[in-house]
Design a protein that fits this description.
alpha/beta; six-stranded parallel beta sheet; four-stranded mixed beta sheet; elongated
Length: 243
């Protein structure tokens, strides 16, 4: 499920190039040697584990220098090319932008639903997002290999591009005045989903064409983000199929 990279220089370069690293293993006896690298990794939400030297036995044939990283073998799609191809088709396209989704299991579940509902692309920011790592891939039931996943430096740039391409941007927020079942979804649409803790960043909300919410009749005032995303995507699918 992962590709292995090893050695101080290789792992450092992978961090610098913003590769999607699942985790980094460091020989616990060499902890001080890799302090700066470990600190950089943690800032980028990469898991670092200090392990006994015995853990490196199976890698003895490699010049690992006491450090190994596991990176996902997901291939990311080009954002602009993917959008253009989707919009060239006869049917309206659907896109999904994820703002601040940091739980890999939620990301995996979202990717699974996105693949099942014919989402043209799932768009992630390079910073502040869960990694498409082995756990996300497993949770997605393999959908991570089938749906187009794009990475952009800033979601705002992706929003500008989608809007200029004629795509309607809709944000999921409990503060919306209308619910998703009252929202017209028959044209090309991009949904923005935020984290459960913070929602969509307020500066992004201001850019959107509309916002929508899910009716909640119980005492709990929010749904798991992957569940909420599924409800949005299936209402979107229903309307597009019934158009």
């Amino acid at each position: 499920m992962e590709n292995i990279i090893f050695g101080n220089h290789s792992v450092q370069e992978a961090l610098n190039q913003k590769k999607d690293i699942d985790k980094i293993l460091i020989n616990m006896n060499l902890k001080n040697k890799f302090n700066d690298l470990a600190s950089q990794a943690r800032k980028e939400n990469v898991k670092v584990s200090y392990v006994p030297v015995q853990k490196f036995k199976k890698y003895d044939h490699l010049n690992h220098q006491g450090i190994i990283a596991e990176i996902s073998d997901i291939n990311y799609a080009d954002f602009e090319e993917t959008v253009e191809k989707a919009l060239e088709k006869d049917e309206p396209a659907t896109f999904l932008l994820l703002d601040g989704i940091t739980d890999v299991r939620n990301l995996g579940a979202i990717l699974r639903t996105a693949e099942c509902t014919n989402v043209a692309a799932v768009i992630l920011p390079t910073q502040g997002s869960a990694k498409v790592n082995s756990q996300a891939i497993k949770t997605s039931a393999g959908a991570a290999y089938k749906v187009n996943i794009c990475k952009v430096n800033h979601l705002k740039d992706a929003i500008f591009y989608l809007q200029s391409s004629g795509v309607k941007l809709i944000g999921a927020t409990e503060k919306a005045n209308q619910n998703i079942y009252e929202t017209q979804l028959t044209e090309s649409t991009a949904f923005v989903m935020g984290s459960e803790e913070n929602g969509i960043h307020h500066s992004i909300v201001k850019m959107l064409d509309e916002t929508a919410k899910i009716p909640l009749l119980g005492e709990i005032n929010s749904l798991n983000v992957s569940v909420a995303c599924g409800m949005f995507l299936y209402e979107n699918l229903k309307q597009k199929l019934n158009k």
